[in-house]
Amino acid sequence: MATDIEQYKSKVTPYVFACWILAAFGGLMFGYDIGISGGVTGMDDFLEKFFPSIYERRLHAAEDNYCKYDDQMLQLFTSSLYIAALVASFFASKACSKLGRRPTILMASTFFIAGAILCAFAEVKWMLIVGRILFGIGVGFGNEAVPLFLSEIAPVQHRGAVNILFQLFVTIGIFIANLINYGTSTIHPNGWRVSLGLAAVPGLVLLIGSLIITETPSSLVERGKEEQGKAALKKIRGVEEVDTEFEQIVLACEHGKQVKQPFKKLFKKSGVPALVVSSMIQVFQQFTGINAIMFYAPVLFQTLGFKSDASLLSSVITGLVNVGATFVSIYAVDKLGRRKLLLQASVQMFISQIAIGAILLVHLKPTGSLDRGLAALVVILVCTFVMSFAWSWGPMGWLIPSEIFPIETRTAGFAIAVSTNMIFTFLIAQAFLSMMCHLKAYIFFFFSAWILVMGLFVLFLLPETKGVPIELIEERVWKQHPVWKKFFKDEGKSYEVA
């Protein structure tokens, strides 16, 4: 049989490239929020208006370095978004299945813009929290629809790289947010309003983009629109010879139509491998400690003894490293594969976290600060950690779950993956400052232990999906894996095309 790349003809046209970029703004939207919240919670004007007790507490130089920001309401400002996204992801799954990927992306942008406006004009705490909840609904819809859209629209030989555009734009969003926070921290008293309000800009780009991009062929065929599906496939592939790929999509969708309750199917024996892998990747992604660093980077660097401006600048540096390293993943993921990147990064992240923890344990006391050389070394170690995450667990957390489910359970399975990501992001966002207060430097050893477990999981339980057509993952990946194949022993015959 000819290779899939030879069978599935395609070329990258300006239109399909524009579809990739416009949809990926969903990632920028998400990343901007991750980056902006940490910087805003470190601004005196913001704290004085909404969290005056914390503002007073941080003025005391002798206050415990690890505990000066430990406040549940301040953590709720950041984490409320993720509970909203958790709930929204299940509604987004239904929207993706019934309406399509494109309308779901449109809804995501609308909620996000509304959240930005409400936060920017907030005068009381409840307005902030409601604005964050609207942000969260937008994130839930966007994080459900965009990775699925990118995986389904990408040619098989570029699927990894195209899907990683989502994570690339997440990192760009974080970097832009850090730059904006660095600038708005000097605007008194309303710099924080500018930071939060500018979140509407990526939301607006995504809104316009959702009107330009095409619906995915899989979604159209799944909803009984075969002629439109074939036309869409020709449009995104830039060629007329799409019969082989289209036939595979139709067969996969016909197989999928036999499943009336996708969530129920997910929990059957044959659904367990993809469900376990996609969910555990989300848990592991959060327990690397990355969001603890990205959410609270300015706060973290202030704890290390940096002044306010210096801490924001350090966050800009880590943001730039995050963006640059994601390009490594785009280049390498379809060449080296998913597993090699994850295993290499697990080693690098483990060493970085252990080293950070050791330096802080020995040299950072509850009062006082690190000397300049050690503080700079910690920033370098944070950068090596961020770098390895950016070419591995960051993008793979969205890529792998978007490609390992069969068509009949794809939106439902990905909804569970997104909701798992959001609930553990919420837990880390809500608990990190309190954990830092109680565990102090040991928090880095806590995360490094998780990284060790992650590496072992990849080594023994994660299959490689590089170069496998998304409609054939079950046949060529799960049924061939030494551990997971036993879950398919009672399955019927394959529906793969020769």
UniProtKB/TrEMBL annotation:
This is Putative transporter (Major facilitator superfamily). It is a multi-pass membrane protein. The keyword Transmembrane applies. Belongs to the major facilitator superfamily. Sugar transporter (TC 2.A.1.1) family. It is found in: Membrane. GO terms for molecular function: monosaccharide transmembrane transporter activity; symporter activity. The chain crosses the membrane at residues 12-32, 73-92, 104-123, 129-150, 162-180, 192-213, 274-299, 311-333, 345-364, 376-400, 412-433, 439-462. Keywords: Membrane, Sugar transport, Symport, Transmembrane, Transmembrane helix, Transport. Residues 19-466 form the Major facilitator superfamily (MFS) profile domain. One of its GO terms (cellular component) is membrane.
